[in-house]
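This part of the workshop introduces the protein records we will be handling. An example says more than a description, so a record of this kind follows:
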Amino acid sequence: MELQRLLSMMTLEEKVDQLLQLAPAFFEGANSAGQITGPLEGLGITEATVRRAGSALGLGGAEEAIAIQDAHLRHNRLNIPLLIMADVIHGYRTIFPVPLAIGNSWDMELAGRTAAIAAKEAAAAGIHVTFSPMADLTRDPRWGRVMESTGEDPWLNGEYARAFVRGYQGKDVAKEPYKIAACIKHFAAYGAAEGGRDYNTVDMSEWMRREYYMPSYRAALDEGCEMVMTAFNTVDGIPATGNRKLMRDLLREEWGFNGVLISDWGAVKEMIPHGVAENERECARKAIEAGVDIEMMSPCYPHHLQELVESGEVDVKLVDEAVMRILRLKRKLGLFQKPHRYADPAAEQDILLCAEHLDAAHEAALRSCVLLKNEQNTLPLNKDMKTALIGPFAVSDDLLGPWSCMGKREETATLAESMSLLAASSALTAVGCGVESITEKELTDMLTAARSADVVVLALGEASEMSGEAGCRADIRLPGCQLELVQRVRELGKPTVAVLFNGRPLDLHGVLDEADSVLEAWYPGTKGAEAVAELLYGEANPSGRLTMSFPYSVGQVPVYYNAFNTGRPQSDPSAPVRYESQYLDIPNEPLLPFGYGLGYTEFEYGQAVLSSDELHAGDSLSVSVSVTNAGSRAGEETVQLYVRDISGETVRPLRELKAFRKITLNAGETKEIEFLLTEDMLRYHHSDLSYHSDSGAFIAMVGPNSREVQELPFQLISGVYGTTTTTT
């Protein structure tokens, strides 16, 4: 049916309810059938409202999706199908490493492939839209949701956002099989919540937002992302969900986004505790005026939007525009012709956890782990060496992490099981314990195993509920009982390896300084234990590189590589001078920098060379460097290019990532790496929010991470380049 005609046939009540999204328990046909009354009463809506609702979230598989859709169409007067959405964040049933870990792979093709597999599984299970990717810039590891981001660099985050969108949606989400629509989140600047505390205030200049926090959202939209989700936080003192300047003026008018804008869970009604609305009625008015098309799990629209229109306080055109955007997405996904889309219980059984998907999960886990330390070549382990595997994650299946959707722990091997398959017979002893407390018996058993071993592997970390949404921590060290375990093992004088399972950068004092080797595994997903075991035994070579700095202390945070210099920069960390920008008790620099990571081989960099010391608009400047594998085995290196603008109209960071190259080198092999620098890579937002470059002095930097770089000065010649209009 032609959409304008369909819209004209809808009553105002039907239009308003089309803007409502509800959880499965509200719908007939849900797995929780017979329990609908409670949710209806809790939200204060009627069964008739549910039958007119436009979308559902969080369904449990193809059978439930089909049953709910069929029941909905039986009762919906105009046969308008539901849009079915879910939090498919790092896999549906086959669970991949968390997004922060995938970010550490520096592999856009891999990231896109994980999203494509997640889309295929979700589509077969009846899902039409995923609430992913999250492109929030993250600089504060206290925030639990850093695990859902890809790190602290705006350009790199944007590249990952593009890759995830391509994976979920393909080239044409309407035509390619088993694709789902992506929803970029959380618009905007949610990663800068004060104190690293979820749902908290964000207060920053528009210049800061546009220069650092907005580009990754824009990259996803440029890639064709179909939906946007509002953030929980305030922007310029106004909650994002009711922020007309942010949503209508910037997102809709300036950026030209005409897709669907959805609130986060309950966020429309949360304008009341925020203090910008007295009641639900005011919430409904402010949200629709801001351009929010779908209200997720709060009842302000169904309770009050009709009366607001009928009283003349809200123009019905705003409602019509919102409904039309939702209907257009439903048409684009083909739901009017095929309301179940790809939902198919039989196909679901064949697709979920299939061998191809498990192989991809295994590869993603291998490429996401980061070797942080390896003294005395403690790693890789000798398979014949008597090894004690101890600690809270030795025999734990809590490796999937937060937001693991339909993943099942019982389908995930433990590290002990995976290492046992590779180790020589009887070479491995495994003893587990609690994450936040260790009993005397557990401690005794672990130390007994350690004493009789040649090498000790400590499997440490955070339980999955300690990160993710609402998983914020003020103390980002490992729990004290784990640090005590490390110390007690160290007293035995055994070679010691620490493996970390966690969702954020940690303060690693008491681990990095005590263990001989440290492997950061993050939450590695369904095939994570097998991948970690292979890395420990040297069947694979660690290649991950950090995309978020590890702080020296929580007192530094937010700490990030692309910081400003200040007017009184620290001149010499080894000989501090008073009245410079520094701490008296800790270094300024993070413990482990952005871009850092080791492997089981050594790479040597030759002298970097510039093709010219001048760059003109329309031309390019070549930055080249030779890289040699000086070790005894093949390995992968991530060569990184940074730039510093020496003098800008606004302050510029000490370094900014502009490009990188991943290369694989055999032992003894050398490759020449070339980067091309162009004028457009030097543009930035000025104080009037225009976006262009300035002529003047720059430094190109190349190296294995953001700290260890060679510096090469050059000049951008003649004039101002780029646009003078406000843009990102």
Q: What stands out?
A: The longest helix spans residues 108-124. The chain has a mean pLDDT of 96. DSSP finds 21 helices and 28 strands in the chain.
